[in-house]
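Lab channel / #folding
Pinned by the channel admin:
"Please post every new chain as: sequence first, then the structure tokens as a reply. Keep commentary short and put observations after the output so the thread stays searchable."

First post following the new format, from NK:
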Amino acid sequence: MTDVTEAAPVPVLPELICPRQDIFDTTAFEAILADAQALPPSEGRALVVAHLRAVQKAGRAAIADAFRANPFRSRPTTRAYTYLTDQLVAAAVRTAETCMHPNPNPTTGERLAVIAVGGYGRGEMAPFSDVDLLFLTPYKITAWAENVIETTLYILWDLKLKVGHASRTVRDCIRLGGEDFTIRTAMLEHRFLMGDATLADTFDQSLRADLFQGSEREFIEAKLAERDNRHKRQGQRYVVEPNVKEAKGGLRDLQSLFWIGKYIHKVQDAAELVPLGLFTEDEFRSFVGAEDFLWATRCHLHLISNRPTDQLTFDMQASVAEAMGYQDKAGRRAVEQFMQDYFRHATEVGDLTRIFLTKLEAVHLKAEPLLERLFKRRPKVKDGYEVIHNRLAIADEAGFLSDKLNLLRLFEEALRTGMLIHPDAMRLVKSNLDLIDDEMRNDPEAQRRFLDLLLKHGNPERALRRMNELGVLSAFIPEFEHIVAMMQFNMYHSYTVDEHIIQCVAQLAMIEKGELVEDLPGASSILKTGVNRKVLYVALLLHDIGKGREEDHSILGAQMVRKIAPRLGLKQDEVDTVEWLVRYHLLMSDMAQKRDIADPRTVRDFAKAVQTVKRLDLLCVLTVCDIRGVGPTTWNNWKAVLIRALYRQTKRALEDGMEALNRDNRGAEAKKALRAALSNWPRKDLQVETARHYAPYWQGLHVTAHVTIAKLLCDIGENEIAMDLHPDEDRDATRACFVMPDHPGIFARLTGALALVGANVVDARSYTTKDGYVTDAFWIQDAEGNPYDPSRLPRLRKMIERTLAGEVVTQDAIRDRDRVKKREKAFRVPTHITFDNEGSDIYTIIEVDTRDRPGLLHDLSRALAGSNVYIANAVIATYGEQVVDTFYVKDMFGLKYYSEGKQKTLEKRLREAISEGAERAAG
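Reply from TO:
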């Protein structure tokens, strides 16, 4: 190969994704350079830059095309981008030295070495990686060297390369590297490109002798502290929009391992870590597999976005999955399969990190934390175990493996002692998973040990997470394997399916320990009264076991429980209860969030499904843990109020009989509460107020809303719109009450006004009075899902008043602001519309399950109003990008919609409203 340098050839890199000649034609460049030397300097420079731009474009296209055709071949791709960059850098330097600043007789001080550092120095470049260069001079920089460097940089900038650069002497490098670990790490991965080889060799030797040697422990601790801080910023390994480079289990973690290995052992390739005993052959293959996959992902990210992006946002996940050749199959989207592979590799990186650091500890390179050294109290461990570096280790590997139950006892001992498991012990377990066979799974002792991990030590999530990462959980419960690292491609779930389950178990453990009494008084009190803990923990462990298949995961999961639960040692009545809980684990959440729990029929139907208080207690706790395990911000006061109210009413119905839900009884209680709250009102005014409303009004609103609406009605003028905005902190929302003369379409007008001010409606209720008024109550939140700050309420009121007065044309105004964010466009949310005439004694329930977007509720209510549908109330349940809007409606004669023809007409109009709004949102 002929390279563009003369004095020092650009290093020949191994296999590239496409021929070198397709990337950079060195012969053609030599001809251009010769032509440039014959021209005035500025013209010669322009000729070279124009050529390099064309070559760069063609070379990048050749690499990208070859990579797209082989979407997993990341190493040859990163080397190809490095090779192209090497040639461009060398060409820029050659042009600067020959065309612009020739110096045929340089002095000893006019020597220059060009060195690649950082990721570029390592020879790994994504399509838009930075180009980090070190210009090395023997002494203080001379005018000639300064001119060459400046011209080189301007040529590279003309090529739109993002160049990080420094001009230093060897002494400068040693001094700055001693002060800054980032600089030291960049120089650790230096690679000589061109120029004075002797100067570059002096630099290499000085780094080793004067900077690296003797500072190994300091470097390791700095890199580990940097890693911990990075993980805190980026989030854990299972966050659903991970950063491929910086997140836990990402490329930077792998690079950190290599940096440490290179710093200590002077290795130039990760393969050299195997003969040193830091990795086994299998572990090294895992290292390579993870690195290849992560680099492929990163390269596709750059190419698709056409910029240096490393965040796997939802829209990018779908695009990268397509680029890598994943396809939908067996009820799972291609993007979900891709992300499952991603998270499995990220988990592998975590395992490799633990193994590597263990070996460092073995040679005392990783110091123990100071407090641990001073105040360490080693717990006494059982026979067969020992403590190494304050971690639980196995004393006799052969003896440990002679009894397969030890693969479970290890985790129990770790929980009992509170110690972390030594990575050598983890390595032993992982390489002997075949010992966990049917014989062991059916062993009563093994079943008891497994249940003890859940029930006995107070922190089961620790054991479950480590067992899951090592494959023990999937070996003991083979059905679990399918959901390991399974991505749920939506904005609702913050974790993979397996991590969600572990988070749910952690929530239950915290409730049991009394750590969430203030946040969850209801669930905490249920556990204090006593429930079957075994049933509850096993139900939580298995509640999503059926996910990722074509069937309904609740039904499939319940079927799987029939086989799994007996293998865990549960009695038949316990198996039956767990099966019921898994089958109906979404029932309470759906009833609370998608139905009007003020409607006695809702509670009555739910009570019939639950049948016993025992089941109600178990389902309530499971529901709370399930919602809280979805993500750190999913649970809020609004959901808490709904779940608590449904639980309280259902328990009352189960204990006192269904007559406790009688409408008349509840109406009488509500009126009594209003009279008490307005005890200072004249008797006549109270009689007018209690007589003017129909029965649903009294059971649908709390007394605080009744009081507010009574005051608005009392003072309302002719054709006036009365309004009250009040923070409802108990529900994490702002309550907006409206009173006005009744007329068709008023509900749609109100939803339009609220949409226009950017309010998210979470609940809405509409009632007509006997004397011709409409009384509406909406609960709204701001864009962050919080109640409006009281200081914003006057402006909010003014904007709503303007809209209701007709000063703003709602549809036009919404059209200008109704846009779906780019990162959300990859989601597919099919629309389902159902009509239910059994769920309410009075109303037809229309449930619209579709993609959420601004203005949706207004579009739907407007479509219903245009069909002369009376909307009594709307219940809104949002699940990330998906929303379920439930409307309780009557026709213009006060009747339900029984006619199939009328239902089909309404469905058609609702779908048209959704479609038109979706087109508007898409711009």
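NK: The chain has 40 helices and 15 strands.
TO: also worth noting, Residues 223 and 229 are 10 Å apart (CA to CA).
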